[in-house]
Specification:
This protein is of the alpha+beta class and about 375 residues long. The protein folds into four domains: about 100 residues, Helix Hairpins, CATH 1.10.287; about 120 residues, HSP40/DNAj peptide-binding domain (Sandwich), CATH 2.60.260; about 70 residues, Urease metallochaperone UreE, N-terminal domain (HSP40/DNAj peptide-binding domain, Sandwich); about 40 residues. Helix content is about 30%, strand content about 25%. The strands form six sheets. The chain has a four-stranded mixed beta sheet. The radius of gyration is 31 Å and the shape is elongated. The two termini are about 55 Å apart.
Length: about 375
């Protein structure tokens, strides 16, 4: 049986760093998490593969062994790579879930996310959504009105999804609410995938909510987006999540997706801009005006500026979202040459080239020894 490569499972390259590994894992794990994919065996299996791969690759010693010997090398050293396998501890497992869901009750920007849910409730109080931002909105911050829909428990079935709230014992876990999974010599209990840990299942679906256990209510909210947010950052909107049976509202988490800009390229808090420079400007070293995030700057080109040369402007980048100053604006030169020359221009350039003398033909002196060497090679071949 062919093994699926751990790097392929996590969609990363073999030379990825820890940050890239964690980012890819969190994205994929949230996509295939059982809570998001109820009764989906394929998603559940995918989630287990992701967890197994991440547990190995995030550990430098395990990763080194895996790179050399594959899974067989890990098993041979008593280091099963499976999720919950030997070599792991519960703190490590909880840390992984906390990092994925932002465990801990943070506030405002970058706050943690908890999977809060009341008994017999079919949805979490907290929910999240991707939120697109224009480049300038992310850089400078803004107030945004957004329309959301939050879940409210169905009164007719008391949030159970069953007609008249009538439930029966789950036949998959025999009412235990959990199943035991074995990984090598270790055993771990996890919520039943059929009843999601409740131990009961719906006998007949509620007609009011079509068995969902909830209705959706519309809401328009205004959020203050801080300056400096970037793709992947999250904002917690406290009290705008789903509503429990008791009337408590959870939290809404927005994950930002920032659009790219035609001219500015962002890298963290630094911003890059490509500056087209005509070859004569580069040779002469002119001063030119370039755009920056909040206006314009003067770029003083040095005499003989080369293609791809970079000029940095301190504190002209993006404001750090946590208040730690600003990044840099980095202008990168792109030398532009004329596509066509008329006779007069050719003549002027030829005269200019002549005024530089030997300096205008640097290849001549550089290749003298090469020409001589090649000539000797041909002579020796003929003599042979």
């Amino acid at each position: 049986m062919t093994e699926i490569d751990y790097y392929e499972i996590l969609q990363v390259s073999k030379n990825c760093n820890g940050s890239e590994l964690k980012k890819s894992y969190r994205k994929l794990a949230m996509k295939y998490h059982p809570d998001r994919n109820p009764d989906d065996q394929e998603a559940e299996d995918k989630f287990k593969e992701l967890s197994e791969a991440y547990e190995v690759l995030k550990d430098e010693s395990k990763r080194s062994i895996y790179d050399q010997y594959g899974k067989a090398g890990l098993e041979g050293r008593g280091m099963g790579g499976g999720f919950g396998g030997g070599g792991q501890n519960m703190d490590d497992i909880m840390d992984m879930f906390n990092s994925m869901f932002g465990g801990g009750g943070g506030n405002g920007f970058g706050g943690g996310r908890q999977q809060r849910r009341e008994s017999n409730q079919k949805y979490n109080l907290d929910f999240e959504m991707e939120f697109p931002l224009k480049f300038n909105e992310a850089v400078f911050g803004c107030d945004k009105k957004i329309d959301i829909k939050y879940k409210v428990s169905c009164d007719d079935c008391n949030g159970t999804g069953a007609e008249n709230g009538k439930l029966e014992t789950c036949d998959y876990c025999n009412g235990q609410g959990q199943v035991v999974m074995k990984q090598g010599f270790m055993s771990f209990a996890q919520p039943c995938p059929k009843c999601h840990g409740e131990g009961q299942k719906v006998a007949s679906s509620c007609g009011s909510c079509s068995g969902r256990g909830y209705h959706e209510e519309p809401e328009t909210i205004t959020l203050n987006i801080p300056a400096g947010v970037d793709t992947g950052n999250r904002l917690r909107a406290q009290g705008h999540g789903n509503q429990s049976k008791s009337g408590q509202r959870g939290d809404l988490y927005l994950t930002f997706n920032v659009e790219t800009d035609e001219h500015f390229v962002r890298d963290g808090n630094n911003v890059y801009i490509e500056v087209p420079v005509f070859f004569t400007q580069a040779v002469l070293g002119e001063s030119i005006t370039i755009p920056c995030l909040d206006g314009e700057l003067e770029l003083d080109l040095k005499v003989g500026t080369k293609d791809k040369a970079q000029f940095s402007f301190k504190d002209e980048g993006v404001a750090d979202v946590h208040g730690n100053g600003k990044g840099q604006l980095i202008a990168q030169v792109k030398i532009v040459y004329p596509k066509k020359l008329n006779d007069e221009q050719k003549e002027l350039l030829s005269k200019l080239q002549e005024t530089f003398g030997v300096e205008s033909s640097p290849h001549t002196s550089k290749f003298d020894s090469a020409f001589s060497k090649v000539t000797d090679w041909f002579k020796s071949r003929k003599e042979d």
